[in-house]
Design a protein that fits this description.
345 residues; Rossmann fold; globular; 22% strand
């Protein structure tokens, strides 16, 4: 198996506040296989978007990467630890946009409202590709055409507020792909769109990913989107990955009680015996990033929690089936790994 294009180990993000230490990421471990689409799912507040920002080293103030590594494969030269680079330093700025790119959740807040979309895409090309003004404009028009923007040459001079939500998202994708990055991070790219446009955007991303051979991290709360558009999935809870495997295995045999709860709450077409059925819901909600819970972070909400174990021992991530990792003490492999980690500490 080839080396992953990005390997994240022990990644933590935090900031001090008057209420204590905020820790939205608490030790992320995740590999992004080259050329594949990996889904990152979980409820709001689990740290999905913070993971995306930490990858590009653009965590919002006052948040900072406090521990761990983000290793970007650099071919024969080895790897570059993005977590050790200064966020505003020249090395990180050279990588961001060129080798790593991001599609933000709401393009209206990502585009400058006082510059045309064409000029903003062209600026990326002049910075990273060293193209002159004329060549950058032509390449930007090519990118707008590639993502299915109608009348791409005319749209080059449009401002963001001149475009519909779907067109703005296409322009955002064009800007993200302008330099043909190795890795594309898509943070809830279709949340604000209606279902028809959502399907078009996801189909477009899948086509471009296949054509350009990109590695994609698709962040979403929509498990249907994950099922249709990813080959691997990582499930997050309170700043940690709690389960990671192939998409097929996750939907066929979810191992973590949190994943089982998420899948159980998804509406399904049809009903048993023609009767309406009430969807099961997980009790409680994701604790705030200030929380320091003993044992497993999910144990207060877990229907399978074992008193004296789940509320005491912090679970490690371990392989519980071939190619299937989980962070749950109900599995002997996890319990053994957790005890060993506790003893080493």
């Amino acid at each position: 198996m080839s080396r992953p294009v990005i390997s994240i180990r022990g990644l933590e993000v935090g900031a001090r506040s008057r209420h204590g230490m905020l820790r939205p990421l608490r030790g992320i471990d995740l590999d992004l296989p080259r050329g594949a689409t990996t889904g990152l799912v979980g409820e709001s507040g689990c740290g999905k978007s913070m993971t995306a920002r930490a990858l590009l080293n653009i965590t919002p103030n006052p948040m900072r990467i406090t521990a761990g590594s983000v290793l970007l494969d650099n071919g024969a030269a080895g790897s570059i630890d993005l977590a050790r680079l200064e966020p505003d330093g020249a090395p990180m700025r050279a990588i961001r946009g060129r080798r790593l790119a991001m599609i933000f959740q709401e393009p209206m807040t990502a585009f400058s409202p006082v510059h045309t979309i064409g000029n903003q895409i062209a600026e990326m090309l002049t910075i990273h590709e060293r193209l002159d003004k004329r060549a950058a404009k032509e390449r930007a028009i090519e990118m707008l055409d590639l993502v299915g923007m109608p009348n791409a040459r005319q749209r080059f001079d449009a401002f963001p507020f001149n475009l519909s939500g779907g067109m703005r998202q296409r322009a955002m994708i064009a800007m993200a792909l302008a330099c043909k990055p190795d890795v594309l991070v898509a943070d809830e790219p279709t949340t604000a769109l209606d279902v028809t446009i959502q399907a078009q955007i996801l189909e477009l991303l899948a086509r471009l990913q296949a054509e350009l051979g990109m590695t994609v991290l698709l962040i979403t709360h929509d498990l249907g989107v994950v099922a249709r558009n990813t080959s691997r999935v990582a499930v997050m809870y309170l700043g940690q990955v709690v389960e990671e495997t192939t998409t097929e295995a996750l939907f066929d045999t979810p191992m973590h009680p949190y994943t089982q709860g998420l899948l159980g709450s998804v509406p399904r077409l049809g009903s048993r015996h023609g009767k309406r059925e009430r969807l099961p819901a997980m009790r409680g909600s994701v604790p705030p990033a200030l929380s320091e819970l003993p044992g497993c972070a999910f144990h207060p909400r877990c229907p399978k929690a074992v008193p004296g174990l789940c509320d005491v021992v912090k679970p490690a991530m371990a392989e519980v089936a071939e190619g299937h990792r989980a962070r749950c003490l109900l599995y002997p492999e996890v319990l053994v790994a957790s005890k060993a980690l506790e003893a080493a500490a």
